[in-house]
């Protein structure tokens, strides 16, 4: 009976394992390429087992940034830049979204519905549409090629405001009234009541926004002019280059795999809160 009960899930598990293999195999091939030497990769003779050049390739990618055909910013520097940018974007978006959603839901002021729909309509304008006026503002403020110039224009989030507003609407009125009876002001209610109950939602939002900030390419490419401020995606793209010249694929694959580590660590660390924030029944 026990075997029959568990046997019902075998097809689902088989499909799940096939999906995992389908997505994981390219990553494994990239790992194998990062441990091989350049002639094997370019000649197409690379096997499916890791090679003996892992230490050399990863050292070049992480520390020196120089390979046989690559001269780039070291990945340690690029990853540090991306980490600061991703954390700044995620924290900035969450703080602004939290305050704006709180004001729209709990503060009775004239025009709050109009304010919400004005924020919501910005979802219709992608970054590419407003890239020129945004760059003009950043240039006028002398923030080109600075970390604030990379982070600040990307910290406004209509998506975060929308998600937090929908969550705040589920907060019982009795909880709000109890806080008022206890003498809690607006800031005390936000800090002592709303923040504790919003932790799963904020954790899920942080994971999504951190990955969003980590993968930024177009805006950092436009607003940075020095190699010392290049983020991971820009650095890897410049390693590949353009034209028909051969590139150092082992070093590039090592750099790409190193770039996977921080987002993976964030997801694994915050997995429980992330799933809880997305699946709670009251949302």
Rg estimate, integer Å: 24 Å
CATH topology of the largest domain: MetI-like fold
Structural class by helix and strand composition: mainly alpha
Shape: globular
Number of helices: 16
Mean model confidence by pLDDT: 84
Q: Determine the CATH superfamily of the largest domain.
A: MetI-like
Q: Please state the oligomeric state of the protein chains shown.
A: single chain
Q: Largest sheet, described in full? A: none
Q: Can you write the helix and strand succession as a string?
A: HHHHHHHHHHHHHHHH
Amount of helix: 55-70%
Structural features, described:
The protein has 283 residues and is mainly α. The chain folds into 2 domains: 2-64; 75-279, MetI-like (MetI-like fold). The chain is 70% helix and 0% strand. The protein is built from 16 helices and no strands. α2 (10-34) packs across α15, α4 (54-64) packs across α15 and α5 (75-106) crosses α12. The protein is globular and about 75 Å long.
Summarize, please.
This protein is mainly α and 283 residues long. The protein is built from 16 helices and no strands. The mean pLDDT is 84.
Task: Give the arrangement of secondary structure elements.
Elements: H1 2-7, H2 10-34, H3 38-43, H4 54-64, H5 75-106, H6 112-121, H7 131-140, H8 147-151, H9 158-168, H10 173-181, H11 186-197, H12 199-214, H13 218-223, H14 232-240, H15 249-269, H16 271-279
Helix pairs in contact: 2-15, 4-15, 5-6, 5-9, 5-12, 6-9, 12-16, 14-15
């Amino acid at each position: 009976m026990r075997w029959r009960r568990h046997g019902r899930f075998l097809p689902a598990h088989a499909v799940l394992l096939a999906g995992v293999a389908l997505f994981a195999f390219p990553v494994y091939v990239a790992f194998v390429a990062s441990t091989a030497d350049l002639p094997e990769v370019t000649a197409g003779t690379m096997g499916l087992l890791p090679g003996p050049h892992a230490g050399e390739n990863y050292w070049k990618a992480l520390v020196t940034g120089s390979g046989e055909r690559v001269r780039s910013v070291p990945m340690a520097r690029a990853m540090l830049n991306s980490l600061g940018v991703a954390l700044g974007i995620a924290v900035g978006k969450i703080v602004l979204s939290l305050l704006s959603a709180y004001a729209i839901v709990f503060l009775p002021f004239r025009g709050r519905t109009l304010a919400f729909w004005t924020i919501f309509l910005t979802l219709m304008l992608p970054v590419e549409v407003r890239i020129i006026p945004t760059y003009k503002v950043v240039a006028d403020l002398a923030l080109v090629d600075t970390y604030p110039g990379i982070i600040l224009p990307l910290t406004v989030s209509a998506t975060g405001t929308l998600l937090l507003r929908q969550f705040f609407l589920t907060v019982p009125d009795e909880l709000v009234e109890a806080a008022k009876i206890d003498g809690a002001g607006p800031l005390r209610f936000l800090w002592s009541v709303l923040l504790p109950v919003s932790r799963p939602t904020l954790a899920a939002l942080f994971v999504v926004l951190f990955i969003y900030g980590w993968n930024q390419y177009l805006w950092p490419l436009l607003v940075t002019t020095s190699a010392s401020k290049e983020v991971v995606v820009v650095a890897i793209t410049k390693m590949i280059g353009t034209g028909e010249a051969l590139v150092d694929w082992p070093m590039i694959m090592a750099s790409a795999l190193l770039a996977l580590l921080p987002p993976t660590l964030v997801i694994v660390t915050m997995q429980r809160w992330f799933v809880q924030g997305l699946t709670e029944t009251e949302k």
